[in-house]
Amino acid sequence: MAKYDKADIERRMKGAVESLRSDLAGLRTGRANTSLLDPVVVEVYGSMMPLNQVATVSAPEPRMLSVQVWDKANVTAVEKGIAKANLGLNPMIDGQNVRLPMPDLTEERRKELAKLAGNYSEQAKIAIRNVRRDGMEALKDDEKKKEISEDEQKRGEDEVQKLTDKYVAECDTAAAQKEKEILTQ
């Protein structure tokens, strides 16, 4: 039974790129983005729950997030959870809503965020290269066991390298777009 599976390798590389995109979406650019609050957890009913399970998050204005808490008793818990998440946001309670105005980013903070975007991209590229290594090793093992020919091994290695190049380029593009967005807002 051959160990090499092109579809699995492509799926894993695609997963690394998707993970990068979700990490980049969480970076604050000065514009209100609901995904900014994804990592926030709130202590309600004696347990820790993600914010999106106790409230609805929306962006009614370009520089404002609004969190509509479903249970009025949880409003202060949501405010504390947002403050504890250390996102640089100042929650303001307005009845059953929590409003979050987006502060302006300083030039220094913009550069830090751009550098962080680059770090996220590098992590994703490392994951992609690890998948490439696994694919290459599987091909070598298959050839050693005489399950595939040497020519098939070479073709497989070329396919894996092309997939690697494709997904590394996607990582570079996503990071460059995010850096541009951060630095020009």
In short:
This protein has helices at 6-25, 75-84, 107-144, 150-184, and strands at residues 41-44, 47-50, 55-61, 64-69, 92-94, 97-101. The chain is an alpha+beta fold and 185 residues long. The strands form two sheets. The protein has a four-stranded antiparallel β-sheet with strand order 3-4-6-5, covered by helices on one side. Strands 1-2 form a two-stranded antiparallel ribbon.
Topology:
Layout: H1 6-25, E1 41-44, E2 47-50, E3 55-61, E4 64-69, H2 75-84, E5 92-94, E6 97-101, H3 107-144, H4 150-184
Antiparallel strand pairs: 1-2, 3-4, 4-6, 5-6
Q: Using DSSP, what is the number of strands?
A: 6
Categorize the overall geometry: elongated
Low-confidence stretches: none
If you average the pLDDT, what whole number results? 86
Gap between N and C termini, in Å? 53 Å
Structural Rg = 22 Å
> Which bin fits the share of residues in helices?
55-70%
Q: How is the largest sheet built, in terms of strand order?
A: 3-4-6-5
**Largest β-sheet summary:** 4 strands, antiparallel
DSSP strand content: 15-25%
Structural class: alpha+beta
Key features of this structure:
185 residues, alpha+beta, 4-stranded antiparallel sheet, two-stranded antiparallel sheet, 4 helices, 16% strand, Ribosome_recyc_fac_dom, cytoplasm, Ribosome-recycling factor, protein biosynthesis, RRF_sf
